[in-house]
Write a structure and sequence with these properties.
Number of helices: 9
Largest sheet: 22 strands, antiparallel, barrel
Shape: globular
Strand content: over 45%
Radius of gyration: 27 Å
CATH superfamily: TonB-dependent receptor, beta-barrel domain
Helix content: under 10%
CATH class: Mainly Beta
Distance between the termini: 37 Å
């Protein structure tokens, strides 16, 4: 792990929003005297006050409101919406191409991925930001620059460092309640923090949040023609089926609670101990597509009719457990420098259960609740870092030299669900007396074929140097080498320069190589499903069509041309300008280009006409459709980011802190390689190409004004998302380009007796929505695309009450 100055050792702690517009940073540098505007790479520092003033439910929402470079769909739609980690995305890249740190230490990722077409999230195993309470955060530092040479794998797009509160006294407790203007999606959250003093100027800060969320949906009715199956599939058409309006929105979170602890204390005058730990729990019920009474899984014999006479809405319950702990020692050896020894462990577990389930091949013995397996990912890190300032010699300032070694162990494990979820029962494919069709099996979750355990060990070493060459010219160089037990080794470097042309204007530039090792989740992911279809239509001949997502290094994938995944490689170039025309105002502009080779991508589901000929005559001949992860694509991302801030002191009427940012980013696929005899454009089809190239809005504008006057505080924020496009999988005529969208937030609060604060607010105050979907996707039920950046559920209104302890 790249060395970071301990939060408690920085010369200055960033103050609340508006009091310090150029805070000392601990990310992107090993020096303890560098502010955000003095950094050679763009760094955003967001205080706890700024995060809370957004009114957001979680950290992902707060960063979306504040950062023009941050993007992740805030209204995920569909069956898996509640189970997928709300990750971080910078500069239009994937959420697993951003490294997330807690107090400068690597945070473990989620064990779950989705195959849904989520922008920046399809096939990615991200850090779940929803598990980090806003009350636990002192500030967030965002390094918008390639940093693999400094911090290791995953830091292609940048690094997000979350600095936890370091309070030895005080505290706060609060309750927040809100919901969408249409009456659903009610959210309840109790949160708080408390500081305690420890010996030798130490502290212990405890933080938590706990709450629940009702499902939210804005859909059209399902207008398919349904028959009630109580006695026969030929009974009259039922117009009032209770399941005709089914949800396609965010799921029900029945309970979620997160705890964080952060501590540090002195042992001697030169030795201190520190530690932080977290625990998170979440249960989510996510609804899938409605199966009408005439669906194959609902129309088999009297037993099935009795169970689901009106059809069924399959529900997947996801139970998440997440915990981590870090402990370390810091030693200041005077002339020998500073040492930091740390050990950390983190684990993410996701269990899934199908509700409203039925395995027709089991007949009456089929359970209606089926446990479908467990996904688990854990990570252990051991790091030793050293830093020392050497006499300046020929340079204007001392040389800060840093070095370190790191060892990491990771494990990803898939545990199969109960047999009723994937095993054919005794009635499998016997003829149903009512319909005359064969009784199919049931295939959901993790099967015995998918169950697996993967391990990885990583050994790394780095060296970093920074200095002021002259009064106006500063720079640094970093080199890092890492050896992976499964994907080989990589060595990367970074150069950075900053030239202060005048006291108010500076130029900065960086050049770096980088890499991202494929996550173990991507390397080991495997899934199995089956469709039952009539061939030819109307013939009464029903067959099962097995579909597989194959492990990348499996023999089956190898027949298709797949192979073990290798790391992504990147080249990151940036040029920036910093202008501080007045004491309380600044403007920055950064232009960048990121080239990524061998980008890890989850392939499309390859059709039977491509798969069947390859598997014919082999033991895999039953597989009729397949997908797998592959290094098929090279991409180039270009763009610029413009940020500004100004603090306006109003003397008798308080102060207003203005902040703003604008980003324009575009990504192009520069190369698609063929895999075996399958063309690259078939491996990554039109829809997936569209997610990479056009799925993120082409530009994003964020504006905010925070007015503080006495006990009053008012925060107004405005976001504008530019156009974005969803490509149809097969027909360009069905592509849809969505119009720009404006989103306005408002938060107003008043503090009584300097203790009790009442806040009211709205996210998407004016109830704007993205364009509605054209066509009849999923029978015309969804109104809005799953890739909509915001607004699919409309305006959200809330109120909160908090008390300072």
């Amino acid at each position: 792990m790249h060395f970071l100055v301990a939060p408690g050792l920085a010369e200055e702690t960033p103050k609340a929003s508006g009091e310090n517009l150029d805070a000392v940073v601990i990310i992107g540098t090993n020096r303890s005297d560098i502010t955000a505007l003095e950094s050679s790479a763009p760094v955003d520092v967001l205080s706890s006050e700024q995060l809370l003033n957004t009114g957001a439910q979680d950290l992902s929402g707060a960063l979306t409101a504040l950062s023009p470079s941050f993007s992740y769909p805030q209204s995920p739609q569909g069956a898996f919406a509640g189970s997928i980690a709300q990750g971080a995305s910078l500069r239009g890249l994937a959420s697993d191409q951003v490294l997330v740190l807690i107090n400068g230490k690597r945070r473990h990722t989620s064990a779950n991925v989705t195959r849904q077409g989520l922008v920046n999230g399809r096939g990615a195993a991200a850090v779940d930001l929803s598990l980090i309470p806003l009350t636990a955060i002192q500030r967030v530092e965002i390094l918008r620059d390639g940093a693999a040479a400094q911090y290791g794998s995953d830091a292609i797009a940048g690094v997000i460092n979350i600095v936890l509160k370091q309070a030895e006294d005080g505290g706060n407790i609060g309750y927040r309640f809100g919901g969408y203007d249409k009456g659903d999606g009610l959210q309840r959250k109790l949160s708080g923090w408390k500081g305690f003093s420890l010996p030798n100027d130490g502290f212990l800060t405890l933080s938590f949040d706990a709450g629940s969320q009702d499902p939210a949906s804005d859909t059209n009715p399902d207008n398919r023609l349904f028959y009630r199956g109580s006695t026969s599939i030929n009974t009259p058409l039922e117009q009032n089926n209770p399941n005709r309006t089914w949800r396609w929105g965010s799921g029900n979170v029945s309970d979620q609670y997160n705890f964080f602890a952060n501590s540090e204390f002195g042992i001697t005058s030169s030795l201190s101990a520190y530690g932080f730990a977290s625990y998170g729990h979440k249960t989510t019920d996510a609804e899938s597509f409605f199966d009408p009474p005439t669906a194959l899984y609902n129309t088999f014999g009297s037993t099935a009719f009795a169970r689901y006479p009106d059809g069924r809405v399959p529900i997947t319950r996801y139970g998440l457990e997440d915990y981590s702990g870090t402990g370390g020692l810091r030693f200041d050896a005077d002339d020998w420098g500073k040492f930091d020894l740390a050990l950390s462990y983190g684990k993410n577990i996701v269990k899934s259960t199908d509700l409203n389930a039925i395995n027709p091949s089991y007949g009456a013995a089929s359970p209606s609740t089926i446990y479908t397996g467990k996904r688990a990912f854990d990570q252990t890190n051991l790091t030793l870092d050293w830093t020392r300032d050497f006499a300046k010699g020929v340079f204007y300032k001392p040389v800060t030299l840093s070095a370190g070694i790191a060892w990491r162990k990771e494990n990803y494990k898939l545990t199969e669900g109960e047999p009723a979820g994937w095993q054919n029962g005794p009635l499998y494919f016997t003829t149903d007396p009512v319909t005359g069709r064969p009784l199919p099996g049931y295939y959901s979750g993790i099967t015995n074929v998918d169950a697996a355990s993967l391990d990885r060990r990583v050994l790394a070493a780095f060296l970093d140097a920074e200095t002021h060459f002259t009064e106006k010219l500063s720079g640094g160089a970093a080199i890092r080498t890492e050896d992976y037990s499964d994907v080989g080794n990589a060595t990367n470097g970074k150069l950075s320069l900053r030239f202060e042309a005048t006291p108010t204007f500076a130029t900065r530039a960086t050049a770096s190589t980088g890499y991202r090792a494929p996550s173990l989740v991507q390397s080991g992911f495997s899934s199995f499903s089956v469709q039952v279809v009539e061939r030819p239509t109307g013939s009464g001949n029903w067959v099962e069509v097995p579909q597989r997502t194959l492990r990348a290094d499996s023999p089956e994938a190898a027949l298709l041309g797949g192979k073990a995944l290798k790391p992504e490689k990147s080249l990151n170039l940036s040029l920036g300008f910093v202008w501080k025309p007045i004491e309380r105002g600044s403007v920055t502009l950064d232009v960048f280009q990121i080239d990524i080779d061998d980008r890890v991508t989850l392939s499309d589901q390859l059709a039977e006409n491509l798969v069947a000929p390859v598997f014919a005559g082999t033991q895999y001949s039953g597989i009729r459709s397949a997908a797998f992860y592959t290094n098929v694509a090279d991409t180039r991302t270009r763009g610029f980011e413009l940020t500004g801030q100004y603090l306006w002191e109003l003397e008798r009427y308080g102060r207003i802190n203005f902040t703003g940012g604008f980003s324009k980013i575009s990504t192009d696929i520069t190369k698609l390689r063929d895999v075996g005899n399958i063309r690259g454009s078939q491996i990554v089809g039109r829809a997936t190409q569209g997610l990479i190239e056009d799925g993120t809005p082409e530009n994003k504008l964020v504006l905010a004004a925070n007015w503080v006057y006495g006990n009053w505080s008012v925060n107004i924020a405005q976001r504008r998302y530019g156009e974005w496009t969803a490509r149809n999988a097969t027909n360009a005529a069905l592509d849809q380009t969505f119009s720009p969208q404006w989103v306005t937030d408002l938060d107003a609060s008043y503090k009584f007796n300097n203790k009790l604060r009442l806040s009211i607010g709205a996210i998407n105050l004016f109830d704007t929505h993205p364009d509605k979907l054209k066509g009849t996707q999923l029978y015309g039920v969804p109104k809005y695309s799953i890739t909509s950046p915001e607004g699919a559920q409309g305006a959200f209104y809330y109120t909160s009450l908090s008390y300072d302890l």
